[in-house]
Hints:
The complex is a heterodimer of chains A (336) and B (327).
Chain A: E1 11-13, H1 14-28, E2 32-36, H2 54-58, E3 63-65, H3 70-82, E4 86-93, H4 101-108, H5 111-114, E5 124-129, H6 144-148, E6 154-156, H7 161-173, E7 178-183, E8 190-192, E9 206-209, E10 214-218, H8 222-235, E11 240-244, E12 247-249, H9 253-263, E13 266-273, H10 278-290, E14 299-303, H11 312-318, H12 322-333
Parallel strand pairs in A: 2-3, 2-4, 4-5, 5-7, 6-7, 10-11, 10-13, 13-14
Antiparallel strand pairs in A: 1-8, 6-12, 9-11
Chain B: H1 9-35, H2 50-57, E1 64-68, H3 72-78, H4 82-89, E2 113-117, H5 123-137, E3 143-148, H6 155-167, E4 171-177, E5 180-181, E6 184-185, H7 198-201, E7 205-209, H8 213-228, E8 234-239, H9 257-265, H10 268-278, H11 284-307
Parallel strand pairs in B: 1-2, 1-3, 3-4, 4-8, 7-8
Antiparallel strand pairs in B: 5-6
Amino acid sequence: MSRGAALAEGKSNILQSVNAALADALAEDEAVLVLGEDIGDAEEGGVVGVTRGLSTRFGEHRVRTTPISEQAIIGAAIGASLAGFKPVAEIMLMNFTTVAMDMIVNHAAKLRFMSGGQTNVPIVIRTMTGTGFGSGGQHCDYLEAWFAHTAGIKVVAPSSPADAYGLMRSAIDDPDPVLFIENLPTYWNQAEAAPSGYRVPIGRAKVLAEGRDVTILAYARMIQEATPALAQLAEAGISAELIDLRTIAPWDRETVLASVAKTRRLLIVHEAVTPFGVGAEIAATVGEALFGQLAAPVKRLGGAFCPVPFSKPLESAFAPRTADIVAAAQTLAAHL
Amino acid sequence: MDNRFSPDAATQLGIYRRMALIKANDERSRKVIRSGRLVMPYYSPRGQEVIPSCISACLTDDDYICTIYRGTHDMLAKGVPLRDLWAELAGRVTGTCKGKGGPMHITHPASGVMVTTGIVGSSMPIANGLAWAAQLKGDGRVTIANFGDGAANIGAFHESLNLAAVWKLPVVFVCQNNEWGEHTAYDKTSNVPVAARGGAYGMPGVRVDGNDVFEMYHAARTAIERARAGEGPTLIEAMTYRFFGHVFGDADGYMDKDRKAAAVAADPVPRFRTHLIDSGIADEAQLAAMEAEIEAALDDAVDFALASDFPEPVELTRDVFGEEVAA
């Protein structure tokens, strides 16, 4: 979480990658717009600076700071998209999508279908979230399952700078609404930068490490927790495969099912609470497709089923950690 | 008054044609539902004919409107073809939306009907976006956001009017105050006229008799020209009265009988018809011919709709996304 550390040669972080993707899209296509609270340079380019520099470079008519009015923000994005623009609307925090759900769920997601394909809503809704900054119960929920449960909207959650760039470019290209989830605590983690123009296809997971004994499927910050688990499991003689789901809806069945068919054991890890979550959907699909081939029941790890707590020890215990992932993977591997 | 916009004779005839079409379409809708030939949720706009008829007389085909579930009057006035409309009402594949939207979700971009929402208040935030697009392109288009008095008390109203004023958007907010928000009277839900709220956002707020063609035309044209000139949004509160209950089949027991009888007695459609004849703009035979033409077009549209095919089940997975995506 080293905020503001200088970027090493060839490296980027998620914050800079999203910024670069927006800048490249704005530069290449006049139809691309950016709107949201505090996003202009007069307001310091967003509360953490993701949009810094964009309004100066592309003008306040295309990169437009809005009042604190989430329904009006998404509504403006929808309307402009119906008239040919490709707006990227920022809802500062994922919890604030709750006050714009009518616009997102009843309108953005449904207008293509309800119009019989006459109109479409090519918008991107950027939003950040994630535990770790002590913000308590209303600023860091992972609510992706709500949106994945809605027909007509796609949901992506990159965990690396290159994926953040490539998925943002694909989301802007996409002819339908895409919810783009950014993780706040990992914004400043550095890794390989994406080349300009890079695209990551929506709906494609990425195998980060190959293994034989157990598949660990995670996304967003949980990749940071799962990665160190691989070496610890290897020490215990367990070969784990790590998959970054990257797109939550529509998720990459092919990659996940192929992996689990090989390892016969699946551990799903997300920061969102477990009940009725993304893990439940994937577990059910894997059970339907691979019943009889599994060596162990599919295991889910998720946030505790409570509002996110404030007190540091409680907050730290809320979401799955590396030790939890190691323990769960070992339990699965014990099923022969 | 010299500075008032007044519709010329041809414009008045065009306004009456729209009003007569809306009235006839409403009567036909209720008749067809009662006959059992078509089952649909139906929110009658009867009594509110003047408002969209005057607004559309000031718009071009390129201008946009957003409307709501009680919106067939807005759609017809803007020019949605009867066959396409009726086929959609009947859920047929030949409808505006292939039967997938239905009465509460008509879209017809060719006539500028961009969104019809079934959610109270949701026409306004989207209308702002259409207006923003016109502002960015500089194409002079104006967007009309239609809604009812009930919608003036939902948060989206406040957010939308504020944003439109701050961004000086070419949008006109048209509150069709028919005195009823579903089953609840307007005076029970607000202490001030809707129009009075315009000033709170720094835009003109005007209350007009929405059943008077001359009042309504002046207000609509003033607001539309202001928007087109880049001077920003206007809030119009057009006073009218809903002749029927909230939805077809609602016995409207909550509506005051005397008030309703008075409103129906002052029916704006025959009133304007009389004016056209008295002022020599049209004669009885001319208007009767126009009305007969409308009835014939409705006969044709209903027959076309009911003879059309229903969409195939494969449509369940089409138009969810641009490309079909497995669930």
